Amino acid sequence: MxxxxxxNPVILKHLHIQEARVAVIxxxxxxxxxxxxxxxxxxxxxxxxxxxxxxxxxIAENIRLGADDVIPEEFETSIEIFSRVLRKYLIPHNEIMxxxxxVRSSDYEMLTTLKAxxxxxxxxxxxxxxxxxxxxxxxxxxxxxxxxxxxxxxxxKNYGVTILAIKRNNxxxxxxxxxxxxxxxxxxxxxxxxxxxxxLNKVLSA
Length: 206
Fold this sequence. Notes:
Number of strands: 7
Oligomer: single chain
Shape: elongated
Structural class: alpha/beta
Largest sheet: 4 strands, antiparallel
């Protein structure tokens, strides 16, 4: 084991990074992460660089600097939330793992390109009786949900729907607390019966 500053090319050379097939960068300092990527690329054009980041917004810059694969913690947190919901509804472990593998193997496309609306088919193969995980866009500012907290909106109590995560601009909110505020333009990741989600979608898009 070697301890040192990975932003220092001398340290990287000592580790023979120029001969490495894969390099994994998993630190919490975004600036240092970028420096390490650049230094590795200066020493090797063939090493496959995998980076863990905290936020989705950091993906593009890390890729531009030379990273091959960027894994944002936000997406992994979303996957864990979805998995816990599925376990609660006694979905077989192999189906849950298939779901997780599908999300990761598609480079998290399932979490970034879902079209808003109550008929998104991406999760239907999970075979949850009378339940779906879909996305719905908050399009209307004048209703009983916008600018209200999750508790005030009554989404769970009045519509029987659970908010798993919220996408706001390019940021994912995965820690959904009762006092989390719903804003116009948010993309809500919802779990519930299709009829309930349809009912809520009419309110959000009216």
